Amino acid sequence: MPRRTASAPGEWVNWAGDQRCRPDRIVRPASREELAETVAAAAAAGQKVRVAGSGHSFTETALTDGVMLRVEALGGVLDADPGTGLVKVGGGTVLADLNEELARLGLAMENLGDIDRQTISGAISTGTHGTGARLRNISAQVEGLELILGDGSVRHLSVATHPELLRAARVGVGALGVITAVTLRCVPAFTLLRVDSPQPREEVLDSFAERAEAHEHFELFTFPYDDSALVLERNRTEERPRPRGRAAAYLNDVVFENWALGALAGTGKLAPRTIPALSRLAGRLASGSRTSDRSDRVFANERRVRFTEMEYGVPREHGPEAVRRVIEWVRSHRYPVFFPIEMRVAAGDDACLSPSHERDTAYIAVHQYRGMEWRPYFKAVEAIMDEYGGRPHWGKRHFQTAATRAPRYPAWAEFQRARDVLDPGRTFSNEYTKRVLGP
Prior knowledge:
It is built from 14 helices and 21 strands. The strands form 5 sheets. An 8-stranded antiparallel sheet has the order 17-14-16-15-19-20-18-21. Strands 7-8-12-10-11 form a 5-stranded antiparallel sheet. A 4-stranded mixed sheet has the order 1-4-6-5. Helix 4 packs across helix 13, helix 7 packs antiparallel against helix 8 and helix 10 runs antiparallel to helix 11. The protein starts with 6 loop residues before the first strand and ends with a helix.
């Protein structure tokens, strides 16, 4: 028998520091068998179970007063076939670690988001995505899942055996079971050329559709009180990787994108009236750059400044208009928000609860610095996104309920049927899932 990992009470806090709970027990299983025993025992005792990954969700999704599972021990590559690109990894594998292991195998994920600190199970369960007009979110790269159900049994889902259940479980919000292993469809390792350039925002928004189609990975950042946009274009290249030197990378990633951003945001928090001027200063400080490197290193950015975030997916053709309306609201209300708006794109997919389900999507993300009031801003943004049938990111703040979300997902009923099959006793529910998925 593997060594049993001790459980203990204690407080859990997410990365942003604005979600916290005190579970009855926090358990760190050392094996899949121990995890299954813990789940079954909790369910038999009438306790609810939630899994906390790296804590990068801004919602209440991990919160519980029952049993919280930490699955860091269930990580790493379990099996790999470089010929087919199929790689089975533990559900607790952090993306940054996965990328290193894939690189040693000569493989890579075809697309990633701009943060690599999440676990693979957390990333897919919330519909996490990167950017690319012809590329789907991370969950679409899943070929199979291994779930521990409420009775402690193991359920294997694959494209070949249970396609309907897999479509539900790929973006399952932690409500169907504990993901202990994921089989991913990977691609041969590749190099990306990244070009960043500040440009007039209206020109970028006017040509948004063409730019998104012209580049494999396209996104933009814009401060609401500035008239420029920082455009990021990433494309595959056959050139030899030419990563930035350590000093240049530190200057850009740590000094400017974190220390300077944090200092400006902190100043704006203390003196909100200065935020428009600070935003224009930040826009001027954003400079062009060019680098080529291993794909995952180009995708990921370092995030040291803490914030909270809302992100909505809208039909792609409405993205520029929606961004303009958000900026107009901020300016007309003189709302104190320093952080930039981010817009990315993704191709439609078939996961039941994916924000990109069956439609090509523009993702619009808004942020607020830690400790500053965010509700009026986020509620106003949500009202705008509602007019386009917007679907919120499952790991980021929103005010929707199951009643308001259900009409936006053509496969909502299919997900609910899968939930009844996989978790009929609602072992994996909490107040958040009750609100956004129903009882």
